[in-house]
């Protein structure tokens, strides 16, 4: 097969070269917007992709043009064999990154650097320790906050993911911006998205425009040049060491030049965060089948926007009728 045929391109001419791999649907935090409830059944370890299987599937994606891989979850660093997986993927010719809740970064700092990871997304929705406990049901704010400083001290590019929910943390937006005055952190405000069992309603979405209005009530801001495939609309404030961005999935989706694919921890390929259909790559790998045609067919079926199932006007989305996994089972 010629090289040009091995690119993953969909009906809308979008080339897919970015794979997000979930290592587990397990987590040591319980963020209300991500995990359905305390009784969520984690996938049994035998059903998860094993390190050699993750590497094998990742290599097939690389042979089909993937040049960027993000590890996510659940919490990727709660897997006992996380270091082995990071080392294996660090040997591939890709830009390797990770999204983590930050609680265990101090244990993995050397492994992460050795694998060539230079940029991390760390989630932190509040700058208040007591509120963190309410949001995540775990008392780990101090650990996350000090691990962010540890990563910055090591010269890591740190993006802080903040899911903004009306009435929960929208009044902290300016506190996060104040953090960027002296620290080279990149704050990414994320609009609250609907997933199975996460109590989403449109009035809880604090929108891109509202975030900009809040920031510009205090600061002068300048838009930064958008990179191709960027999901974030980025801004700088003159004189600040850090920057900020908004991920406007709900009020202004960015599907037009999407290049992302996902692999769930149980080895199912999804061509969109909101896709209903999945392709069982792990089962096929275990049966010794050729995965190439499965990748191609999955991408060929990709919808133009938001898995073909979200109403483009987010105020009209009926969350009860979304057919999807919860965020923790997809991999954020
Ligand atoms: N455990 C890791 C973490 O928290 O960073 C990685 C997995 S988590 C599912 C990935 C990202 O998705 C996090 O930044 C989290 O805040 C975000 N996320 C989870 N549920 C969300 C939702 N309903 N709306 C918007 N972002 C969400
Ligand atoms: Fe865990 Fe991350 Fe989901 Fe929070 S957002 S429950 S840290 S997987």
Describe it:
With 332 residues, the chain is α/β, with parallel strands linked by helices. The protein has a single domain (3-330), classed as Aldolase class I (TIM Barrel, Alpha-Beta Barrel), CATH 3.20.20. It is 27% helix and 17% strand. A hairpin with a 6-residue loop joins strand 8 (232-236) and strand 9 (243-247). Helix 2 packs parallel to helix 3. The radius of gyration is 19 Å and the shape is globular. Bound molecules: S-adenosylmethionine and iron/sulfur cluster (SF4). Iron/sulfur cluster binds next to loops.
Ordered list of secondary-structure elements with their pairings:
Blueprint: E1 18-22, H1 51-63, E2 68-72, H2 82-90, E3 95-100, H3 105-114, E4 119-123, H4 129-136, H5 141-153, E5 157-164, H6 173-179, E6 186-191, H7 208-216, E7 222-223, E8 232-236, E9 243-247, E10 260-263, E11 268-270, E12 279-280, H8 281-286, H9 292-300, H10 327-330
Parallel strand pairs: 1-2, 1-10, 2-3, 3-4, 4-5, 5-6, 6-9
Antiparallel strand pairs: 7-8, 8-9, 10-11, 11-12
Helix pairs in contact: 1-2, 2-3
Bound molecules: S-adenosylmethionine (SAM) and iron/sulfur cluster.
